[in-house]
From TrEMBL:
Keywords: Cell membrane, Membrane, Transmembrane, Transmembrane helix
Subcellular location: Cell membrane
UniProt keyword Ribonucleoprotein, yes or no: no
Pfam families given in the database record: Competence, DUF4131, Lactamase_B
Topology class, membrane: Multi-pass membrane protein
Superkingdom of source: Bacteria
Protein's organism: Jeotgalibacillus campisalis
A GO CC term assigned to this protein in UniProt: plasma membrane
Protein name: Metallo-beta-lactamase domain-containing protein
Primary localisation category: membrane
GO BP annotations listed: establishment of competence for transformation
Transmembrane segments: 42-61, 229-251, 271-295, 330-348, 355-374, 386-406, 413-437, 443-464, 471-489
Limits of the Metallo-beta-lactamase domain: 495-707
């Protein structure tokens, strides 16, 4: 069985190259080390090269099969809904199968009066529905989650939106498969936890027993991730191993023979994987145990590394697209590094030191993946894991699982004990939030370039190679220096950027000057907050962009005026970013929304200053002038803070929501030209007057507006006026985020979405 691990490595190479030659190239140092380690003979080498070609072909075929037979114009569809619905505020989501076998993502638009029992009647069913097909939204900003790509990996190409729940026709009962029945059993179990467990304990119990984190508080989840113990809230190999060990011990004590115990586990573990959501770590752990059990039936032995390799080959054979899942990547990367290094590092170690070493090895093994996807590294995780792993494995997991089972036989007694467990969990949550609030709990380095990822792979592999020979501190020091260099490069970058973030119907413009000369944010976007939703423009749109660029502090936030679509993300953004000061228009605090924001900023000790024209400052090769407003009477749009700037070889005019009256008043005081105009008021008819446009004479215009917004911005008259002046127009509603990147006096525009002007 020695051949199985080299075959797994070549399967990884073949699938990676089929997905992206770039990702395949990242693995080159990995294969050089593997060649040195395994030194395959010619016959074996031929075989494993064939494996790489085989998985390249399998993955290519799988990718080519990801297509849709629907046109997007269909309004009536027969749908088989055979899984529980997931509700989120005034919507409910579920995946369904159309009559031609195509998978769709279904969104039900719910009225406030809808009852949960009414939703339960929608599944399982086979009905004819009336609705609207729309394509999933791609990522509209850099570093944002790409929902379109995520669904496409599951061969889902359309979202079918249903507004009328009474529109179902020709409904029939359906028979469920075993897997579908288990999904409903899982949902019933989650609902039972909601009904029996205390409020603060229920979300954790759902995560540990059924692998569902949907009910967990987002701030708490973020805290667990920041301190590097988020893996404890997912059912992983540790959970599966513990459950297997507990049942093995119990069944033997009851009187079952080892052969029967193996058979019970062999049939029960796949069911357990399905009941817990079949996430990549669970499937990996369960399949490894099953492989070991299978070999034990034939009195043969297989190493854990070989079982891991076999598990990898099987999963990749069944679904080559799983390689793109972050959970899949992390699960196998961490397991591989632990199995590779643990024999060398645990010799003669105490339990505490062993946990520290395993935690360190796991973190290092996952480092390139974590930095690429999440752009930050937990500093305290090594120490925190020493405490948290025993708490979860020796106390919370077994106690919660036992009390859940006990609730069926003695619900009152179980409920009484659960109150004590809840107190312990509340205390743990408080500690977790305090640890996450520690200034150096984690460091944000930004998303590394592919070259930097390649260097990370080389360094981590060299470190593991040295560990096998002898444990030395030098490779660790080199890795720390590399992380420090990466961190410094994001803060002292020779490339500057002006980024118009797509915040929907609103404004948010990032100006990040080269060499750390200054970072400014003009407005922070904003959106109407609906009940039962945790979405926030500051947290969910602006912060991921800043985080991906490695930005954790902003020198100035310039809030042009008091409308919510310009200031709404500020407070939430302050939870993640250090803000030196905030600029507002004179007397903007007269607006209620601004007054509330100022109180929030005051509580955070963030300085707020009122500014008016004229005001100039210079930093590096960039020059800024505040050219409007002139008075201290706040009038809304026509008291927007308006900025003229010279950045990256171009001159810029950031108009806020300035309207025609303000534009003409400004022309009475200044004779201005600008290469780039940020069009005022999202392209509204009330802005960008002919006289103003003639004076400014821009080459480019940027319009920040939402897709299909209810104001119909930008107005056709404004677009035609810009076209008449031969101005090249970009819009966040058509192009997504728009970025100007520059070095010195030269730069280029680029945008996120492809756009056909015709």
């Amino acid at each position: 069985m020695k051949w199985i691990t080299p075959c797994a490595l070549m399967a990884l190479l073949g699938a990676s190259l089929a997905h992206s030659p770039q990702f395949g190239a990242l693995l080159i140092p990995f294969y050089l080390l593997a060649w040195k380690r395994y030194s395959p003979r010619t016959i074996l080498l031929t075989g494993i090269i064939f494996i790489a070609l085989l998985f390249f072909v399998l993955t290519t075929i799988e990718k080519s099969s990801l297509h849709t037979a629907l046109t997007g114009n269909e309004t009536e569809l027969h749908l088989r809904i055979a899984e529980p619905l997931k509700t989120n505020g005034l919507t409910a989501q579920v995946q369904a199968t159309s009559l031609n076998g195509e998978q769709l993502q279904i969104t039900f638009i719910l009225s406030p009066e809808i009852k949960l029992r009414e939703l339960s009647t929608l599944s399982p069913t086979f009905c004819k529905w009336k609705g609207t097909l729309k394509a999933p939204s791609p990522a509209r900003n850099p570093y944002a989650f790409n929902y379109q790509s995520y669904l496409k990996q599951q061969n889902i190409h359309w979202i079918y939106q249903i507004k009328d729940l009474d529109a179902a026709e020709q409904c029939y009962e359906i028979s469920l498969t075993v897997i579908e029945k288990l999904q409903f059993i899982r949902q019933t179990g989650i609902e039972r936890i909601d009904g029996i467990f205390p409020e603060k304990l229920a979300p954790l119990a759902e995560a540990l027993i059924f692998g569902s984190r949907e009910s967990m508080d987002e701030d708490l989840l973020a805290a667990y991730q920041k301190i590097g113990v988020i893996h404890l809230l997912a059912i992983s190999g540790m959970h599966v191993g513990m459950m297997t060990a507990i049942f093995w011990w119990l069944l033997l004590r009851i009187g079952f023979t080892r052969e029967k115990v193996r058979l019970i586990l062999f049939t029960g573990l796949p069911l357990y994987a399905l009941l817990t959501g079949a996430s990549p770590p669970v499937v990996r752990a369960v399949s490894m145990v099953l492989i070991v059990l299978l070999f034990s039936f034939f009195t043969k032995r297989i190493t854990l590394m070989q079982a891991l390799s076999a598990s990898f080959i099987i999963q990749l054979s069944i679904n080559p697209m799983s390689l793109l899942q972050v959970g899949f990547q992390l699960s196998y990367a961490v397991s591989f590094t632990i199995l590779l290094c643990v024999p060398s590092i645990l010799t003669g170690s105490s339990k505490v030191l062993s946990i520290l070493k395993v935690s360190a090895v796991s973190q290092i093994g996952a480092l390139p993946i974590l930095l690429y996807h999440f752009h930050e590294l937990s500093i305290v995780s090594f120490l925190v894991n020493v405490v948290y792993i025993p708490i979860f494995t020796a106390f919370l997991l077994p106690v919660i699982f036992f009390l859940y089972l006990l609730s069926f036989a003695a619900p009152q007694f179980a409920s009484f004990v659960l109150l004590w467990v809840e107190d312990a969990v509340i205390a743990l949550d408080i500690v977790t939030l305090h640890l996450a609030a520690f200034p150096f709990a984690s460091i944000v380095v930004g998303q590394p370039s592919m070259v930097m990822i390649f260097i990370y792979v080389c360094v981590t592999l060299y470190l593991f190679y040295r560990i096998e020979i002898s444990l030395s501190i030098k490779p660790f020091i080199f890795l720390i220096l590399l992380i420090s260099l990466d961190w410094l490069s994001s803060r002292f970058n020779p490339t500057g950027t002006v980024l118009f973030i797509d915040v929907g119907q609103g404004d948010s413009i990032l100006i990040d000057l080269p060499w750390g000369q200054g970072t400014y944010l003009i407005d922070t976007g904003g959106a109407v907050q609906f009940e039962n939703t945790t979405f926030s423009v500051g947290k969910d749109i602006v912060w991921p962009v800043l985080k991906g660029k490695g930005i954790t502090s902003v020198d100035k936030i310039i809030l042009t005026h008091g409308d919510w679509d310009h200031i709404g993300g500020t407070a939430d953004l302050a939870d993640y970013v250090k803000i030196s000061e905030v600029w507002i228009s004179p007397n903007a605090h007269e607006k209620e929304s601004v007054e509330e924001l100022l109180q929030d900023l005051h509580n955070r000790s963030i300085g707020v200053v009122e500014k008016k024209a004229p005001l100039s400052w210079e930093t590096g090769e960039s020059y800024f002038t505040l050219v409007y407003p002139f008075d201290e009477v706040y009038e809304g749009n026509n008291d927007s803070l308006v900025l003229w700037a010279s950045i990256g070889g171009l001159t810029w005019f950031f108009a806020g929501d300035l309207e025609e009256a303000g534009e003409l008043e400004l022309l009475e005081h200044y004779s201005l030209n600008a290469n780039v105009l940020k069009v005022g008021h999202h392209g509204s008819k009330s802005s960008t007057a002919e006289e103003f446009l003639r004076e400014l004479d821009p080459d480019y215009a940027i319009i920040s507006a939402g897709v299909k917004n209810r104001y119909n911005h930008p107005h056709p008259e404004v677009v035609n006026r810009l076209a008449a002046h031969r101005v090249k127009v970009f819009g966040t509603h058509t192009h997504g985020a728009i970025e100007y990147r520059f070095r010195g006096k030269k730069g280029t525009f680029k945008w996120i979405l492809p756009y056909d002007e015709e």
